[in-house]
Amino acid sequence: MSLRSSLVVLAALIGLGCAPARSSVPVRAPEPSIVAEPREQTADQQVRHVLNRLAFGARPGDAERVRAMGVDQWIALQLQPARIRDTAAERVVRALPTLSLTSRELLEQYPPPQVVRAQMRRSDMSREDSLELRRSAQESRRVLAEMQIGKVARAIASERQLEEVMVDFWENHFTVFAGKGPERYFIAAYDREAIRPHALGKFRDLLGAVAKSPAMLYYLDNWQSSVEEGRPRYCELRTASCEQRRARPGGGSVRSSQVAVRSPGRPRGLNENYARELLELHTLGVDGGYTQQDIINVARAFTGWTLEQPRRSGGFVFRPAMHDAGEKVVLGQRLGAGRGMEDGEQVLDIVSAHPSTARFIATKLARRFVSDDPPASLVDRAAETFRRTDGDIREVVRTIVTSQEFFSSAAYRAKVKSPFELVASALRAMNAAPDMTPRSAQVVARLGQPLFLHQAPNGWPERGDAWINTGAILNRINFGLAMAGGAIPSARPERWPRYAELAAAPRPAQVDAVIAGLLGGEASVETRGILERGTNPLAASCELRAGSCELPPDSSLVEEEMAPAARNRRDPLSRPANLDGLKEIIGLALGAPEFQRR
Q1: How far apart, in whole angstroms, are the C-alpha atoms of residue 273 and residue 296?
Q2: Which tens digits make up the pLDDT trace of 413-443?
Q3: DSSP string of 394-412, one letter each residue
Q4: Which of 30-44, 294-308, 374-388, 503-517 has the least mean pLDDT?
Q5: CA-CA distances (angstroms) from residue 591 to 19, 335, 509, 597?
Q6: Which of 128, 132, 152, 378 is 20 to 30 Å from the Cα of 460, by its Cα?
Q7: Strands 333-335 and 328-330, how do they pair?
Q8: Secondary structure class of 286 (helix, strand, coil)
Q9: Is the pTM of this model over 0.70?
């Protein structure tokens, strides 16, 4: 088979909207009845479906546990993560000290190289101290690296799987690029304080936490946005002394009589970046009915929402001296003159309650959980739930994941896994221990999705076709083989519970067991043939060992600074030599279309 023909076959098998192949050869098992109402998916398919959509794939034994509990009961429990003990995820956080530090503590303990360089110049230190500079650069990288490690490790270890899926969803929806400047020092607090506590809460609370987060304020430049010359200032209208109000972590504000006056050399003027993305990407959507004048007035409403000592990782602060206190009209609603921080708060109230926001968020959630083109009827019901419950995310998700559309045959294995989902699900399938090294996160980056490093504010692609191209398919096949060859030590094939009993079994028995254990008991005739022969037609068409067919992702997407020592190691996606027997079957299964879909 030619390389081109092989690509066509694999792309068709992996492609979106594919129902399970009619030629599938399941490994049959008893099928208990676990739901009362009729659903298109079989009982076993429902178990696999919820573990692939509401979790990052199944670990050995998970399917049996969900089947015993009942799919609906398992969903109900996952929607209440506070009821689930999560000691494994807690151990992950304790093992990564930077995840629990404040942004200021991170900056003090792991200062960026430019700060150390400036200190060295002031101290008149010699060139011999370049070792200290290199050490500081490595420590600075640790701040981002531990967030990346923690994200993958939590996805593997957490019992609160739906909560982790929702944290991933919102961190992509409210994406922040951690490579722009000091954002890497804000990311841990962003996850810990803005996203995670509100992932299944009220959308308005989540929106407000994001709006005040130093990570978002810095990323979209709102911390610099100030009243334009000639427009009324809050302090001029309200008081001659211009009081400063600083938000408390839990809401509200405290007052101070001191105001840090902007220096004459500091840029002034309105910045529309956050206002535009708030309307287009965070709430109403690009077709949500707002105008350019709405963007301008939203930007004016958020003037003065800034950072205290931004270069020192200070927290949110409202500065009246920077605020435009003139009258504004946003989406037809009037914001009266002479007000301060309440302008921005009212804008958040307006956009969070807008019908376009209900539909936009409902569509994105349905796309995440059901299909790339979710049924309009389901989006309508989810949007209605959003409006009826005042933006209760938990109830919107419940509407979607208990629906007939969610459990339809068309939705089953209709989504292509993102690189993060693929790596996390492979590690879980292999019964891996949480990887506390950068290795797993490096593999995610190598597959095209470096974590917390999407530069544009629209986040990583939500549709599967964005992840499927020649280079991506080749790298995904390589990934499966590399995993089986021990590329990630915590996920060696020997950790798979059935490995020892099957290592010496005949190949047909090994193939049956791998299909049952890793592919949910369903494999196309083509996939079964590949596992039996031990060769993938695409891989066989390339000299993968020499790397001649491997097409890397866009280099602009790969973090340049991420663990430089790894540059001298073997590529994590290179195919291991002399891979055969059960390990070969496992590697080919992890690269199979049935595993690439969820």
Answers
A1: 10
A2: 999 999 999 999 999 999 999 999 999 999 9
A3: HHHHHHHHTSTTTTSTTTT
A4: 30-44
A5: 18, 55, 20, 10
A6: 378
A7: antiparallel
A8: coil
A9: yes
CA distance 598 to 596: 7
- The answer to whether 395 and 75 have CB atoms below 8 angstroms apart is no
- For 271-308, how does the pLDDT look when each residue is reduced to its tens digit (9 = 90+)? 999 999 999 999 999 999 999 999 999 999 999 999 99
Question: Any alpha helices (H) in 96-219, and if so which ranges?
Answer: 103-109, 113-122, 130-157, 161-173, 183-189, 203-212, 214-219
User: Cα angle vertex 59, ends 54, 61, to 5°?
Assistant: 110
Which of the 8 DSSP states describes residue 371? -
Pairing state between β 253-256 and 316-318: unpaired
Cα–Cα distance for residue pair 442/419, rounded to 1 Å: 11
- 3-state SS, residue 334: strand
Is 574:468 a contact under the CB 8 Å cutoff? no
Q: What is the pLDDT of residue 287?
A: 95
Q: For residue 132, give both structure tokens.
A: 């200290």
Residue 80 makes CB contacts below 8 A (sequence gap 6+) with none
In the numeric block, which tokens belong to residue 415?
């989504």
| Backbone φ and ψ of 255, nearest 5° | -110, 150
**What CA dihedral angle connects 51, 57, 60 and 65, to 10 degrees?**
-20
pLDDT above 70 for 502: yes
Domains of the chain, by residue range, sit at: 3-18+460-596, 82-199, 224-352
pLDDT at residue 35, as a whole number? 43
Which residues fall within 8 angstroms of residue 388, CB to CB, at 6 or more apart? none
Residue type, 503: A
Q: What distance in Å separates the CA atoms of residue 223 and residue 181, rounded to the nearest whole number?
A: 13
Q: Measured between alpha carbons, how far is residue 159 from residues 81, 201, 233, 511 in Å? A: 9, 19, 50, 30
Residue 564 exposed, middle or buried by CB count within 10 Å (0-12, 13-18, 19+): exposed
Which one-letter DSSP state was computed for residue 231? S
Burial profile 171-187: b = 16 or more Cβ within 10 angstroms, e = fewer: bbbbbbbbbeebbbbbb
Which residue type, as a one-letter code, is found at position 413? R
Tokens at 252, concatenated: 């509200």
Angstrom distance (rounded) from CA 463 to CA 417: 9
Instruction: Label the pairing between strands 253-256 and 328-330.
Output: unpaired
Q: Which residues have C-beta within 8 Å of that of residue 53, sequence separation ≥ 6?
A: 369, 401, 406, 415, 598
Residue 56 structure tokens: 């990052």
pLDDT value of position 421? 98
**CB-CB contact of 183 with 172 (8 Å):** no
516 close to 27: Cβ distance less than 8 angstroms? yes
Residues 290, 293, 299, 303: is their CA dihedral positive or negative?
Answer: negative
Collapsed DSSP state (helix, strand, coil) of residue 251: coil
**Within 10 Å of residue 560's Cβ, how many Cβ atoms?**
11
CA–CA gap between residue 8 and residue 16 (Å, rounded): 13
Q: Which amino acid is at 252?
A: G
316-318/328-330 β-pairing: unpaired
